[in-house]
Write a structure and sequence with these properties.
homodimer, mainly alpha, Multidrug-efflux Transporter Regulator, Chain: A, Domain 2, two-stranded antiparallel ribbon, 5 helices, 3% strand, DNA-binding
Amino acid sequence: MRIGELATKAGVSVRALRYYEEQRLLWAERSASGQRHYPDPAVERVQLIQMLYSAGLSSSTIASLLPCVDAKESTPESRAILAAERERIDAQITTLIRTRDRLDDVIASTTSPSNGCVVTHA
Amino acid sequence: MRIGELATKAGVSVRALRYYEEQRLLWAERSASGQRHYPDPAVERVQLIQMLYSAGLSSSTIASLLPCVDAKESTPESRAILAAERERIDAQITTLIRTRDRLDDVIASTTSPSNGCVVTHA
DNA sequence: CTCACCTCTGACGTCAACGTCAGGTCCCAG
DNA sequence: CTGGGACCTGACGTTGACGTCAGAGGTGAG
């Protein structure tokens, strides 16, 4: 498929796909005229990339982890990065849960202006 | 306390505190010479601000929520924002858990180069 | 063949939360 | 009273993941 179709299917922009290629996260066959052509599995790959980006990983970190996904092979360095990122995400989950609970406290303790209070839920 | 002490106690930079003030998230008394002086509870306030920033809230969103924390009073708009951000964080936790699990899969399926495989855990 | 739409390669723009530097003022221990 | 640190206000720099625009060429249904 061409870049526009991949962008639609994966839910990202065409620009983003070119950026991923620039960051060596994604490659494409080129037609004689230079147009990119992707295989079907590229959709899942892009979604994985997006997933990792949204978890706060940088391009270079993702680039160093994708070989583990592609070849199911790891070096000591890539294993260290994998473990470290996993822990980072775990810690992030923990603080997010705390933040959510804090917001819940605020929601619970908050009342409308000039409201009598103690309205347990609505 | 002065700005340097607050920065140390709250674990942020002096520049960040001035930025928070610029964003109307924080205020300070001023001495005759113009130096900022903060009360003790400012430490917790800054930590709350940091917590919200790290959960992905923007300055303006935080600014619109802090009155709920300060006055325990909410308008329909602020209640809507509170609820929306809570849901956003909740969704973010969900996808982070999925990402973490995905990384765990990669870690589990990954082997050292030229390793025999099937080592269930170590 | 044609025309609307897609794609190409640069290359500059954006945005938020600060970092950093300059030039000047303030505070206080010695 | 003095020196070195802390503080002040601008104001420009940074970073990453794209957005956007320009100018040129490719693609395919009718």
